[in-house]
Design brief:
469 residues; alpha/beta; 2 domains; 8-stranded mixed beta sheet; 20 helices; 46% helix; binds 1,4-dihydronicotinamide adenine dinucleotide; binds uridine-5'-diphosphate-glucuronic acid
């Protein structure tokens, strides 16, 4: 059997590498328009940082896994074609800022229709608005060379940083479709390593909607605990204690209750906004408002954090040095899309702070590019002032100690393990006084740092300043 996947990104690459690893008899061809990305997949330095991924790719490449830009060829040769291209939020036209931009999906469907002969199974791997398969089917049915198609929805639930484990041992695999035979073909692939009872099959629309719903529920939990973190700071309750107290209720459960500077990543916000747009489209105004609040709460949480930094540091951070620890949207990934760090840094830059940023996996070019985008409007325009501030007031360093040196404050924005094991006596000795720490991840040992002499402000933990405030 031959399969191909259009899109060699954070999902297409790892997912296909895992299928190739687990199914040596299936030939897997991953294609992308982005030559640099394909070159990286074929090199020792993969474009996606994921613990354990190197070994998975190395085992399958070149045995039965190929990365190339030969999209037409891969489609023509395959029995099954996964579409795993990006589906970002639209930035223009109708639905701008909410609806999913389905341009890339539609282009793939048209290309598949143009190139295919015989019968193919087309699998939606990208996260899509419910009923997208209808459009995909219509486009495919316009194929004029006799090709026929079945369309399946097989959304991906992996989380970055744990992608290999998630793919190896998923809670479930979801497959939606109309043709029993097509569904069985895909079930058989996953059944090579996943117990059949964990492979759920549904109709197309349930599958498409379940993906958006799962992300909405997950993000809602983060926004819920973050909302409570604000109340904790005002009242003297401790958000970690509250999370533990409620999480031991088996109906609530302990996962996804870690208060933070805000959720990030390429999908939570995009998928909820997409859900909101769909609800509005179907006239469900109250439902739309309900889910939109999850995103508003997240924006509030990010803003609240940078405002707390400014307020605590005597209402000005102008010309003060702030060491920023972490830029990725969570630990164990090099992905910065929608990272809370982007927005906190942007706010601090605009307050004229001098930032020294360290992230173990995100390169300088990426950080500078992201900051420019975070300071730009929807049309991609950045003001001269913002550009100059990024140029002159932001330094990227390669070590947490250098980031903290001579700083008035440090801000932990990603929960990388290595930040926890910094020698904080050394950090303290190198900083200005008072030495502020703003822990956006509740990562550091508060008591230990306080004993050293730091003034620590953590999410959902009151400090004298905030209780009085
Ligand atoms: N990043 C994640 O952890 C997860 C993402 N998803 C969903 O999976 C989809 C893909 O996400 P990512 O892999 O993160 O995106 P990505 O942006 O990392 O990768 C998408 C790739 O598709 C390529 N592409 C776009 N149009 C193409 C075309 N016509 N022909 C060939 N290549 C084309 C792009 O060049 C890019 O390399 C999205 O819908 C996302 O919502 C789902 C679960 C997890
Ligand atoms: O569709 C997607 O893209 C994926 O989105 C999330 O995965 P991911 O965004 O990679 O990472 P998460 O672990 O879900 O974290 C998302 C954000 O929430 C934050 N978070 C998470 C959990 C928590 O308790 N607190 C918290 O602040 C993280 O720091 C991160 O910024 C989902 O967990 C995946 O199931 C889904 O496939």
């Amino acid at each position: 059997m031959k399969i191909c996947c259009i899109g060699a990104g954070y999902v297409g690459g790892p997912t296909m590498a895992m299928i190739a690893k687990q199914c040596p008899d299936i030939s897997v061809h991953v294609v992308d328009l982005n030559q640099a990305r394909i070159d990286a997949w074929n090199s020792d330095s993969l474009p996606v940082y994921e613990p354990g991924l190197d070994a998975v790719v190395a085992e399958a490449l070149p045995r039965n896994l190929t990365f190339s830009t030969r999209v037409d060829e891969a489609i023509a040769e395959s029995d099954m074609i996964f579409i795993s291209v990006n589906t970002p939020t639209k930035t223009f036209g109708v639905g701008a800022g909410r609806a999913a931009n389905l341009e890339f999906i539609e282009k793939c469907a048209r290309q598949i229709a143009r190139v295919s002969t015989g019968h193919k199974i087309v699998v939606e791997k990208s996260t899509l608005p419910v009923r997208t398969a209808e459009a995909v089917k219509r486009i495919l049915s316009s194929a004029d060379n006799g090709a026929t198609f079945d369309v399946l929805s097989n959304p991906e639930f992996l989380a970055e940083g744990t992608a290999v484990d998630d793919l190896l041992n998923p809670d479930r695999v979801l497959i939606g479709g109309e043709s029993k035979q097509a569904i069985e073909t895909l079930v058989d692939i996953y059944a090579n390593w996943i117990p059949r009872e964990r492979i759920l099959t549904t109709n197309l629309w349930s599958s498409e909607l379940s993906k958006l719903t799962a992300n909405a529920f997950l993000a809602q939990r983060v926004s819920s605990i973050n909302a409570i973190s604000a109340l904790c700071e005002a009242t003297g309750a401790d958000v970690d204690e509250v999370a533990r107290a409620i999480g031991t209720d088996s109906r609530i459960g302990p996962k996804f209750l870690k208060a933070s500077v805000g959720f990030g990543g390429s999908c939570f916000q995009k998928d909820i906004l997409n859900l909101v747009y769909l609800c509005e489209h179907f006239g469900l105004r109250e439902v739309a408002q309900y889910w939109e609040q999850v995103v508003s709460m997240n924006d509030y949480q990010k803003r609240r954090f940078s405002e707390r930094i400014v307020r605590t540091m005597f209402n000005t951070v102008s010309d003060k040095k702030i060491g920023v620890l972490g830029f990725a949207f969570k630990k164990d990934t090099n992905d910065t899309r929608e990272s809370a760090a982007l927005y906190v840094c942007r706010d601090l830059i605009r307050e004229r702070a001098r930032l020294t940023i360290y992230d173990p996996r995100v390169p300088e070019t990426q950080i500078r590019h992201d900051l420019a985008v975070a300071c730009s409007d929807l049309q991609g325009q950045i003001s001269d002032i913002d550009r100059k501030l990024i140029e002159n007031n932001v330094t990227i360093v390669h070590d947490g100690y250098v980031a903290a040196e001579d700083a008035h404050a440090i801000a932990v924005l990603t929960e990388w393990d290595e930040f926890r094991s910094l020698d904080f006596d050394r950090v303290y000795a190198s900083m200005q006084r008072p030495a502020f720490v703003f822990d956006g991840r509740n990562l550091l040992d508060r008591d230990k740092l306080t004993k050293i002499g730091f003034e620590i402000h953590a999410i959902g933990k009151s400090s004298d300043e905030s209780i009085k405030g």
